[in-house]
From TrEMBL:
<keyword id="KW-0325">Glycoprotein</keyword>
<dbReference type="Pfam" id="PF00295">
    <property type="entry name" value="Glyco_hydro_28"/>
</dbReference>
<comment type="similarity">
    <text>Belongs to the glycosyl hydrolase 28 family.</text>
</comment>
<dbReference type="InterPro" id="IPR011050">
    <property type="entry name" value="Pectin_lyase_fold/virulence"/>
</dbReference>
<dbReference type="GO" id="GO:0047911">
    <property type="term" value="F:galacturan 1,4-alpha-galacturonidase activity"/>
</dbReference>
<dbReference type="InterPro" id="IPR012334">
    <property type="entry name" value="Pectin_lyas_fold"/>
</dbReference>
<feature type="active site">
    <location>
        <position position="259"/>
    </location>
</feature>
<dbReference type="GO" id="GO:0004650">
    <property type="term" value="F:polygalacturonase activity"/>
</dbReference>
<keyword id="KW-0961">Cell wall biogenesis/degradation</keyword>
<feature type="signal peptide">
    <location>
        <begin position="1"/>
        <end position="29"/>
    </location>
</feature>
<keyword id="KW-0732">Signal</keyword>
<keyword id="KW-0134">Cell wall</keyword>
<comment type="function">
    <text>May function in depolymerizing pectin during pollen development, germination, and tube growth. Acts as an exo-polygalacturonase.</text>
</comment>
<keyword id="KW-1015">Disulfide bond</keyword>
<dbReference type="InterPro" id="IPR000743">
    <property type="entry name" value="Glyco_hydro_28"/>
</dbReference>
<dbReference type="GO" id="GO:0071555">
    <property type="term" value="P:cell wall organization"/>
</dbReference>
<keyword id="KW-0378">Hydrolase</keyword>
Length: 413
């Protein structure tokens, strides 16, 4: 549920992993190119198996992973932590910087987050204050959420206790996450907070469509974040983009099931920063409740701007609300309905978007009287209602801009 995204972000914490291998001359050269310095010999192994971790799915591997992180973090140059094939059960892993090294975590095994909630301070794997990080491999970060989803109260109450997010990056600069799978998180799968220059590529994120608050990737207060060639099917937003997000690039993403690709909810807290320059291109959204959404609270607590959005080349397949801007978001009627928005939505282009919807309302632009949405362009949008007894329509209020190349029933501006 994106309405608690900010809470989750603010609940972010710390942690660590791993081990050292013999570095080939070529790898050493590559490492030097990345880190700009020669690697030193770490004080101990970086392979968690060498540190005594047993991949039996039962023994606690937390201390070995923390030790590997410490060994890598205190060395210089590029250091590679290895999680070999096997099933490694752990509790909270607070992997803290600053580190002297650039760290690669090679994940070929499966990390299993214990169902014992007392084993977490806040989140599960929390990497904080690090420069130059890469997590890659064919392994899985398995939150084992099914063990605790019944304890999630956030569906019903606002000030709920937040279950551990699976992978949290706080204040991390230059990070690549590639190839891995994030499975069945207890809460969000990947939370990116105060990060710069992030690439998420060829990642799979997976949880049941009815699992609570299992957002795929949440971004907040971060800039230059790219998500490419990634498949996300979860119980909440596939991707949610919170306040303070700038230069976000999403392409080649398959989303569904889930709640779609959302900006917001904006305006929940005081002092939120603007959202600016978001591009979502070449994506497929299937069987979700929303497709492309921008939402802000009707009783916004801060004044901010959301501007410069390009949504282009998107295929919708049986999406309930494919295109939706909602400046009057008020889940469960928890807000004061003043009707006066403080979140300005400007410069939003929806271009070459086609496919089917599961309700007649293919386009919904629900903007505020006091602060109409400006510069909205609908260009070659062709979405058909995939049902009977009604026909495709656009429902638009207070949206200013233009429609180009749309059928009459969708050309609402
Ligand atoms: C991160 O990479 C940059 C560019 O290669 C390098 O200058 C810097 O020293 C690296 N930082 C660390 C902590 O290794
Ligand atoms: C954005 O991040 C990528 C790495 O994902 C980096 O190569 C690029 O230089 C960054 N761009 C800017 C403008 O910082
Ligand atoms: C479309 O989505 C609805 C609701 O999510 C679902 O019940 C229905 O089976 C889906 N139809 C198809 C053809 O996938
Ligand atoms: C809805 O989509 C499904 C699968 O694409 C198709 O088989 C079905 O005929 C469609 N229904 C309508 C009413 O268009
Ligand atoms: C068609 O759908 C619209 C929007 O969901 C709804 O308001 C209207 O009542 C529906 N009409 C019929 C005949 O079902």
């Amino acid at each position: 549920m994106a309405f608690i995204s900010n809470v989750a972000v603010k609940a972010a914490g710390v942690a660590a992993l791993l081990v050292v291998a013999v570095v080939s001359p070529a790898a050493r050269a590559a490492a030097v190119a990345v880190a700009g310095g020669a690697p030193s010999v770490p004080a101990g192994p970086l392979d968690i198996a060498q540190l005594g971790a047993k991949g039996d799915g039962k023994s606690d591997s937390t201390p070995m992973i923390l030790k590997a992180w410490k060994n890598a973090c205190e060395a210089t140059g590029v250091q590679k932590i290895v999680i070999p094939p096997g099933n490694y059960l752990t509790g909270g892993l607070e992997l803290k910087g600053p580190c002297k090294s650039s760290i690669i975590i090679r994940l070929d095994g499966n990390l299993l987050g214990t169902g014992d909630l007392s084993a977490y301070q806040r989140n599960w794997i929390e990497i904080e204050n690090v420069e130059n990080l890469s997590i890659n491999g064919h392994g899985t970060i398995d939150g084992q959420g099914a063990l605790v989803w019944s304890k999630n109260q956030c569906q019903h109450s606002y000030n709920c206790k937040i279950l551990p997010n699976s992978l949290v990056l706080d204040f991390v600069t230059n990070v690549q996450i590639r190839g891995i799978t994030l499975l069945n998180s207890k809460f969000f799968h990947l939370n990116i907070f105060e990060c710069k220059n992030v690439l998420i590529d060829k990642v799979t994120v997976k949880a049941p469509g009815d699992s609570p608050n299992t957002d795929g990737i949440h971004i907040g207060d971060s800039s230059n974040v790219t998500i490419s060639s990634t498949t996300i099917g979860v119980g909440d937003d596939c991707i949610s983009i919170g306040p303070g997000s700038k230069m976000i690039r999403i392409h080649g993403v398959k989303c569904g099931p889930g709640h779609g690709i959302s900006v917001g909810s904006l305006g929940r807290y005081k002092d939120e920063k603007d959202v600016e320059d978001v591009q979502v291109t070449g994506c497929t959204i299937a069987g979700t409740t929303n497709g492309l959404r921008i939402k802000s609270y009707e009783d916004s607590k801060s004044s901010l701007k959301a501007s410069k959005f390009l949504y282009e080349g998107i295929t919708m397949d049986n999406v309930s609300y494919p295109i939706i801007i909602d400046q009057k978001y008020c889940p469960n009627n928890i807000c004061v309905k003043s009707g006066a928005s403080k979140v300005a939505v400007n410069d939003v282009v929806f271009k070459n978007i086609h496919g089917t919807s599961n309700t007649p309302e293919a386009i919904t632009l629900n903007c505020a009287n006091n602060l109409p949405c400006q510069g909205v362009q609908l260009v070659n949008v062709d979405i058909k209602y995939n049902g009977s007894g009604n026909k495709t329509m656009a429902v638009c209020k207070n949206a200013i801009g233009k429609s180009i190349g749309l059928a009459k029933e969708l050309a609402c501006i």
